[in-house]
């Protein structure tokens, strides 16, 4: 997937491309373990995150032999996904006559408890948006593993999903069940990506659509998990449906009100 940098021509990053081998059940379990949440809006004195670190954490900065899935490329994808999301949402807010404040920070972490949200330590193997402090935080080792396993499109999806939680907060959207919040975030992530492709901001590489499907399949809830349970995100099928509804039909499909 390539971002067309505004005013700078093509940044000329080649899509890293293809699905890389069978998705381990690992990914599924890891995502389900933490889930991403909109942390403690009702607790205003909640924790500040640790100072931001470089996206490519030193401990994981080994490049792979094939040169296509390096931590540097991962970091570039995160930065690109952030830039595309900021541009996209700024335009949406502007079109509604409203000012837009980008999400304040995107933070990587390596250890459980290194970053906390509202006094709650963030676990390993997760990515979250924290409304207190208005930041996205992700376990860099887990995210790089998913990037290597699924492909670069997963990074754009993941960032887009967490970013969407920040937009929900800005819009004052708060559902009773986490599954509603999560499926809407998937739809909004789909809209940000689909619209960015249609506008030429993003160029899909071969296999990127397949990577979205692979990634969504990997982050679905266990079929036995009740939909109404706290932390439910939706089954793989529900998440895939929501994402592609947004991807194909834009934000009108996402019930933003
Ligand atoms: Zn989420």
Shape: globular
Low-confidence stretches: 6-35, 38-67
- Strand order, sheet with most strands: 2-1-8
Instruction: Give, in order, the helices and strands.
Output: EEHHEEEEEHHHEHH
Overall structural class, as computed from helix and strand content, comes to mainly alpha
Distance between the termini: 31 Å
Please state the oligomeric state of the protein chains shown: single chain
Bound molecules: zinc ion
Measured on Cα atoms, how large is the radius of gyration?
Answer: 17 Å
How many β-strands, per DSSP?
Answer: 8
Number of distinct helices:
7
Biggest beta sheet summary: 3 strands, antiparallel
Helical residue percent band: 40-55%
Share of β-strand residues: 5-15%
Question: What is the average of the pLDDT values?
Answer: 80
What does this structure look like?
Helix 4 packs across helix 6. The protein is mostly helical. The protein is 44% helix and 10% strand. About 23% of the residues have low confidence. It is built from seven helices and eight strands. The protein is globular, with a radius of gyration of 17 Å. Bound molecules: zinc ion (ZN).
């Amino acid at each position: 997937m390539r971002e067309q940098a505004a005013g700078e021509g093509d940044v000329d990053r080649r899509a890293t491309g293809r699905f890389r081998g069978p998705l381990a059940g690992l990914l599924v379990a890891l995502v389900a373990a933490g889930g991403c949440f909109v942390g403690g809006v009702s607790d205003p004195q909640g924790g500040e995150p640790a100072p931001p670190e470089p996206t490519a954490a030193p401990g994981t900065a080994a490049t792979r032999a094939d040169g296509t899935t390096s931590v540097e490329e991962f970091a570039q994808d995160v930065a690109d996904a952030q830039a595309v999301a900021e541009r996209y949402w700024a335009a949406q807010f502007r079109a509604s006559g409203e000012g837009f404040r980008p999400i304040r920070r995107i933070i990587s972490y390596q250890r459980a408890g290194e970053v906390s949200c509202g006094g709650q330590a963030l676990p390993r193997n997760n990515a979250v948006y924290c409304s207190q402090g208005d930041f996205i935080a992700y376990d860099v080792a887990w995210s790089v593993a998913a990037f290597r396993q699924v492909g670069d499109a997963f990074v754009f999806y993941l960032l887009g999903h967490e970013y969407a939680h920040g937009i929900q907060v800005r819009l004052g959207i708060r559902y009773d069940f986490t599954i509603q919040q999560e499926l809407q975030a998937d739809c909004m992530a789909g809209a940000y990506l689909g619209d960015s492709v249609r506008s030429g901001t993003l160029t899909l590489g071969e296999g990127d659509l397949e990577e979205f499907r692979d990634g969504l399949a990997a982050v679905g809830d266990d079929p036995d998990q009740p939909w109404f349970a706290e932390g439910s995100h939706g089954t793989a099928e529900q998440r895939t449906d929501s994402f592609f509804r947004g991807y194909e039909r834009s934000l009108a499909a996402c019930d933003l009100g």
